[in-house]
Each structure stands twice: as structure tokens, then as C-alpha cells.
């Protein structure tokens, strides 16, 4: 039985709704840019998201003083934040790549298996065991996705592999960020965690962008000369991605990694 007071429950529900809505917005914008618009640079797009998260996190903490600035206390903590950044990059890049080959509906159907991976990773990493009923309810979800994959007319093997990889990485990220948000001695609030994680993600994504998406900046500027709307789309998409990540951390902090992924089944 929950011990939360009504105002706390309403706050948590509001966070979930905000995360849910912004997540859908980013997903649809990513699909539009990567598939409909023809902007085939998922790694660069992810790097834009992380640059926006770095800048907006710094503004919110250092300038607007929304929360106190926290420092990284140890090398172990820094390693965990770096690992979280790498996992996050893998999940978003793989997810964005999959959107080039799979429709949004099928992409989200595969994403419904995220709670299964989350439960497995939570048990392996933290020995946290959920009720047997929780595990039992995940079985039909995974079974349904397997059946749907076999009958999907738009099935693409590479896109499917990327989407499953993104799903597993998303689950692992939720567990790791839950540890960083709640562990005594390593606890960071949501905004500070994003402040430190995002620049590391940019550093990790930059060489991949330069190697795999050569001259993407020049191509983007050339597109902007013909249609400046691409710049506004990238800016809005990146700002929305910051809101997704912030609400993602907040929902994890106020609920749990598994709860977060269960709420994400439909988004």
C-alpha cells in the first residue's frame, strides 16, 4: 500500500504525463526528420539533443538556480555517469536508426518489451526482486511482440536488431540512473545528473558523427539555405529532448526503473 500523500501522488502522475507527452513528441519529430523529411543522420541528431541538454541544464542550474550545483564525489561515481552516458547514446542512436527502417507503430510494439529487460537488469545489478505476478504479466507482452514480429509486413531485420538493442539499452539505462539517483553517497538530483551526463554523451558521439556521417554540418547548412525550417525543427526537437530526459530522470526518482518502463509501453 502506498504511503504517499495525495499531493505527492498528483505530482508523480503529472510527471508521468509530462514525460509521456514529450516522449511521443520527440518520437514523432525524429521519425519525421529521419524518414519523411529525409534527414538521414541519427547520430548527429542525437548529438544535437545532448548539446541542448548540456546547455539547458547549465542555464537551469548555474543561472536560474533551480537546484543547487552538485559535484562529482569520486572516480567511481564519474565512471558510473560515463557508463550511463554510453548506454544512453547506444539506446538513442540505435532507436533513431531503427526508425529509418521500421514504422513507428512496430517500433513501439518492440519497445513494449522494455519492462522485461528492466526487470532482468534490476535483478542482476541490484538483486531487486519484483513480485512473481509482475514477472508473470510481462510474459504475454513479450510473447505478443514475438508473434507480431513474425507477421509484420514492414519487417526489416537490421531495423529489428537496432530496435531490440535500443530497447535493452533503454532498460539498462533506467536501472543505472535509478542507482545514481538513489544510492547513498553517490546521490545526484535529476538536473545535476543530466548536467554531467549530457556533455560526456556529446564527447562520445562526436567521433562517431565525424566518422559515420561525414560533412553532416555542411549538409545541414545546405539544407537550411533551401528550407530554413530544418533549423527550427532541430532546435525544437533538441529542446523537447531535454524535457524528455529531465522528466525521465524525475519519474525514475519518484517511482522506480520498472515503473518508468511499464508506463512507456504505449509511448
Mind summarizing the main beta sheet? none
Strand content: under 5%
Ranges where pLDDT stays below 50 over 5 or more residues in a row are: 260-267
Order of helices and strands: HHHHHHHHHHH
- Give the class from helix and strand content and strand pairing: mainly alpha
How much is the radius of gyration in Å?
A: 19 Å
How many individual β-strands? 0
Q: Write down the overall mean pLDDT.
A: 79
Percentage of residues assigned to helices? over 70%
For the terminal residues, how far apart are their CA atoms? 27 Å
* Shape type: globular
| Count of the separate structural domains | 1
By DSSP (H or I, 4+ residues per run), the number of helices equals: 11
InterPro entries: Sugar_P_trans_dom, TPT_transporter
Domain Sugar phosphate transporter: 15-264
Subcellular location: Membrane
Keywords: Membrane, Transmembrane, Transmembrane helix
Can you give a write-up of this model?
The protein is mostly helical. It has one domain. It has helices at 6-36, 42-63, 75-98, 104-111, 114-126, 132-151, 157-182, 190-212, 216-226, 229-254, 257-263. Helix 2 packs antiparallel against helix 8, helix 3 (75-98) packs across helix 8 and helix 5 packs across helix 7 (157-182). The longest helix has 31 residues, at 6-36. It is globular.
Amino acid at each position: 500500500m502506498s504511503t504517499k500523500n495525495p499531493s505527492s501522488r498528483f505530482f508523480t502522475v503529472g510527471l508521468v504525463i509530462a514525460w509521456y507527452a514529450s516522449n511521443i513528441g520527440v518520437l514523432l519529430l525524429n521519425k519525421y526528420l529521419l524518414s519523411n523529411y529525409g534527414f538521414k543522420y541519427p547520430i548527429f541528431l542525437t548529438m544535437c539533443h545532448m548539446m541542448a541538454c548540456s546547455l539547458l541544464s547549465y542555464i537551469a542550474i548555474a543561472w536560474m538556480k533551480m537546484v543547487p550545483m552538485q559535484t562529482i564525489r569520486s572516480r567511481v561515481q564519474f565512471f558510473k555517469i560515463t557508463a550511463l552516458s554510453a548506454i544512453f547514446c547506444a539506446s538513442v542512436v540505435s532507436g533513431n536508426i531503427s526508425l529509418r527502417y521500421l514504422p513507428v507503430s512496430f517500433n513501439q510494439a518492440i519497445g513494449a518489451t522494455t519492462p522485461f529487460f528492466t526487470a532482468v537488469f534490476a535483478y542482476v545489478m541490484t538483486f531487486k526482486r519484483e513480485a512473481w505476478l509482475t514477472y508473470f504479466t510481462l510474459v504475454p507482452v513479450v510473447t505478443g511482440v514475438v508473434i507480431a514480429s513474425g507477421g509484420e509486413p514492414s519487417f526489416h531485420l537490421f531495423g529489428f536488431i537496432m530496435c531490440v538493442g535500443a530497447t535493452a539499452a533503454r532498460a539498462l539505462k533506467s536501472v543505472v540512473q535509478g542507482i545514481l539517483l538513489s544510492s547513498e553517497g553517490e546521490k545526484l538530483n535529476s538536473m545535476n545528473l543530466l548536467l554531467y551526463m549530457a556533455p560526456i554523451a556529446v564527447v562520445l558521439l562526436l567521433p562517431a558523427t565525424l566518422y559515420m556521417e561525414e560533412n553532416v554540418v555542411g549538409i545541414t547548412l545546405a539544407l537550411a539555405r533551401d528550407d530554413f525550417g530544418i533549423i527550427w525543427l532541430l532546435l525544437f526537437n533538441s529542446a523537447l529532448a531535454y524535457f524528455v530526459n529531465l522528466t525521465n530522470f524525475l519519474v525514475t526518482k519518484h517511482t522506480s526503473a520498472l515503473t518508468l518502463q511499464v508506463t512507456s509501453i504505449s509511448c
